[in-house]
Design brief:
By secondary structure, this protein is α+β, with helices and mostly antiparallel strands. The protein is built from five helices and three strands. Helix content is about 55%, strand content about 15%. It comes from Nocardioides ginsengisoli.
Length: about 120
């Protein structure tokens, strides 16, 4: 089991970052940090499908133990956010994750996704 976790202050700061990014791109952004059951992409997709408005949603799934990051976008969001742009966000996050900065990596990835997916 992973020993990586976010403090209450980091979680609160991420909530603000998510709200700001959602206002910018007009999409719902959700973050899951934990163990992915089975295939990470399939797991992330199944999480995305449970969201209230999956077509207008972006899900970031991070499995620290397996060192996996997945971004799943809904149909409406995908019209404004390319796979290459999602890959940019993953690269920005993993650079910080490699330095042991989970909250900082998530913050940068969320900010970048909000900027790239805006109308």
């Amino acid at each position: 089991m992973s020993t990586v976790s976010l403090s209450a202050a980091e979680q609160a700061a991420l909530d603000v970052t998510i709200r700001n990014a959602e206002q910018l791109c007009r999409a719902e952004i959700s973050v899951f940090v934990g163990s992915a059951n089975g295939n990470p992409r399939d797991f992330a997709t199944s999480l995305h499908n449970t969201l209230v408005l999956p077509a207008r949603s972006i899900l970031i799934m991070v499995d620290p133990d397996r060192r996996v990051v997945e971004i799943v976008t809904g149909g409406h969001t995908r019209e404004r956010l390319t796979d290459e742009e999602s890959a940019q966000a993953v690269a920005a996050m993993t650079e910080r994750f490699a330095a042991g900065e989970l909250a900082e990596g998530l913050t940068r990835g969320i900010e970048l996704l909000g900027e790239l997916a805006k109308d």
